[in-house]
Structures are given as structure tokens and as C-alpha cells.
Amino acid sequence: MTVLATGTRLAGLKARFAPLFADIAQGAAERDRTGELPYQAVADLAAAGFGAVRVPESHGGAGATLPELFELFVDLAAADSNIAQALRAHFAFVEDRLVAAEGPGRDKWLARFAAGELVGNSWTEVGTVKVGDVITKVTPDGEGGFKINGTKYYSTGSIFADWLDTYAERTDTGKRVIAAVNRHQPGVELADDWDGFGQRTTGTGTSTFTDAVVAEEDLVDFDTRFKYQTAFYQQVLLAVLAGSAKAAERDFAAELKARKRTFSHAAANVAAEDPQLLQVIGEVSAASFAAAATVQRVSAALQGAYETALALHTGQASAEEDEAANDAAELASAQAQVVLTPLVLNAITHAFDALAASATSVSKNLDRHWRNARTAGNHNPWVFKARLIGDLAVNGTELPRVWSIGASK
Fold first, then answer.
1. Which domains are delineated in the chain?
2. Helices 319-351 and 382-395, interaxial angle, to 10°?
3. pTM for this one?
4. Exposure on the CB side of residue 32, measured as CA atoms within 13 A
5. Are the C-beta atoms of residues 80 and 91 closer than 8 Å to each other?
6. Percent of the chain beyond pLDDT 70?
7. Helices (H), 172-274
8. Alpha-carbon distance 47 to 56, whole Å?
9. Please, what sign has the CA dihedral across residues 61, 62, 63, 65?
């Protein structure tokens, strides 16, 4: 039977991280306003073991299930959606190591996670690279190691990380690999040059590698990477959306409760008692509930893919069952994305209807919830997912589980 979010363990994890999430929430609006990167907040999370919640207890982690992890992710995103997204690559890399074959290499990574080391992202090539091409290269150095050269963009969270999960191509074999590059070395440069109007403090930007060193043991054939990776990456963004809705409910409700002014033609003398305004907050709350519930459904599908991957290793599941579990996870994440993107964006827009012109004050920075949700929603455009879901429903065409971005010509 699939183990989901068990009450006792989840309650313990929520209680463990709630004070830290509360501290993070206190500074979120100001960080967004000033562009200050949350170095200390991310370091505090790592020190508290948040990056190792999926690591088995036998290896120093909390042993959380995927539903438990994403319950925490929604809470973290409600505190600061930037930090939740900044940890996206870390938890994907953790997941890949969890389903890897047991052995010293896997144990070494689990120990690193338990020690608080974090992993950032470095996948997308810079410039008009053709779809499918990989310009970043890993080359043997003639001494048993490798050197990596190339430039990446959208390197979310890398500036806070100890390792960079880097998509590259080996020059000796032509194979596509994930190179785990130690960022604390010469030859690795990270820039916070993302200029989006939302998710401003995710530490996203350009990663440049100039003869940076990579150990052979830290090269992973891309074809062996965990199969539900795209669904997992999307699920982090879904949790960001759900957390943004939860944060909007919290902040707009607080603003309405504290509001002293009203209108001569309002339905009540006190804004916090106005039935029309209370209805708006109620509708936002309902959207937040639906978003969180949708995330839970996707978590269950991901947990199924994870458990089937482990069962495949031990001969307790067939290849066909493994493919079916991964297809189910991909479909769930795609369906959720199509639903949640407009749901959350519309809910946050509607939240402003509960307040007046003062809600648009830069000092309140309430618009950050919409900007962050809009930015998260622009990753992996949902319009393509909707078409693919329709093609599956009508024609039985399988959804792609791996895709890339680049120039069309």
C-alpha cells in the first residue's frame, strides 16, 4: 500500500519547520522589494535539515514521503515562494539519488544531503541554441578526471548551492550526462542576472564554467535519470502556485481585518464585516484549498512512480508497470498545471477586489503574490500541456516525459 502523508510524522515535520517558515515569511516582502537574496534563510533551512527531509532516517534524514515533502513545500512557498522555487533543483537531485542503485556512490550523496549540502540547477543553454543541442561539454583531462566548459541560464538556486546539477555532453563518448559540479572552485562563476518581474530572489541567472573540475564519479548518464523528473519539477511549481494562493489568502485577509476606511455605499459600516468583501476572501480561500488539494493528488501519483521504481530494482514490478506509473505522474502534473495556473492567478487578482486603491501601494507589496504566481506559471507553458492532454484523451498519444527548449532553426 502506498504510504502518503502519515499524520504523526507530517505533524512532527510541520511543527519542526513552522518557526523557521514564520521567520522566512517576516522578511519575504522586504526581500522582494529590495532584491536582497535570502542567503541566510536558505542556510538556516539547510542547517535545520530541510534539504534532507526525503533522505532515509538510516542515512541521517527524516524519511519523508513525497506527499509529506510537498505539504511542507506549500507551507514554505506561502512563507516565500522564491525560496521554495530556489530549492527545486536540489530536491530533484535528491530524488534521483534516492532511486539510484544502492552502493557507495549513492551513500556518499545521501551523506552530503544529510550534512546540509545543497544542489542548484544549470541546464538551459544560453542563446539561440537549436532544440536538443547541448553546447556545454565535459572533456577528459588526461589525469582520470574531467573538465567542464559552457554557459547556462535559468540557473535557479545555484547561487545558494554547493553543487550544480549541470546538463552537458561528453566529448569522448558523445553521451548526455548530468555533471555534478562543485561550485566552490575556480572556473565556476554564478551571476544573479535574472530580470523577471516575479520570483526576483530565487538566485536565478547565468552559470559559467571555464575548465571547472568534475570527478568521473560525479558524472551520471542522463538516460539513467529518474523517469518522473519532469513531473517532479512541475510539482515544485505547482506547490509554488498553491503557496502563493495561501499567502494571498493570509495577507489580504489581514489587510481587510485591519482596514479602517469604508465607502458610503458599502454593505456594512466596518470593512471586516462587509458581506461582499468577506465573500471575496472566501472565494480566495476556496481557491487556495483547491490548489493545495490538487498538489496532494499529484504527490500521490509521484509517490506511486517512486515506489514502482524501487520495486523495479528488486524485481517486484515489471517494466510495463514502471512505465505506467511514470505516465500517470506526468499526466497528473500536466492536468494540475492546466487547472492551477489560471485558478491561482485569477484568485489573487480577485483578492484585490476585497480592498481599495491602497492595496496597490508599493509599500504593501501585495502584488508580489500575483507576480510570483504569474512567473511560476510561465515555466513549461501550460497551453502545450493542455494540447498534449487532449491528444492523449482523443488519440491515446502518450505525453512526452522529457523535452528541451531552444531555437527552432
1. 7-118 (1.10.540.10), 122-224 (2.40.110.10), 229-395 (1.20.140.10)
2. 130
3. 0.95
4. 26
5. no
6. 98
7. 229-258
8. 17
9. negative
For the record, the C-alpha cell of 105 comes out as: 556512490
**Strand residue runs (E) in 141-206:** 146-153, 163-170, 176-182, 188-190
Cβ–Cβ under 8 Å, residues 189 and 207 = yes
Q: Distance (Å, rounded) from C-alpha 5 to C-alpha 10?
A: 6
Identify whether the C-beta of residue 245 lies closer than 8 Å to the C-beta of residue 348. Answer: yes
Residues 235, 98, 37, CA angle at the centre, nearest 5°?
55
* CB distance 207 to 186 below 8 Å: no
User: Sorting pLDDT into bands at 50, 70 and 90, what band is 408?
Assistant: low
Q: What is the pLDDT of residues 44-92, one digit of tens each?
A: 999 999 999 999 999 999 999 999 999 999 999 999 999 999 999 999 9
Find residue 139's DSSP bridge partners: 147
Give residues with Cβ within 8 angstroms of 331, minimum separation 6.
301, 389, 392, 399
pLDDT score of 303 more than 60: yes
**Residue 138 in contact with residue 179, Cβ under 8 Å?**
yes
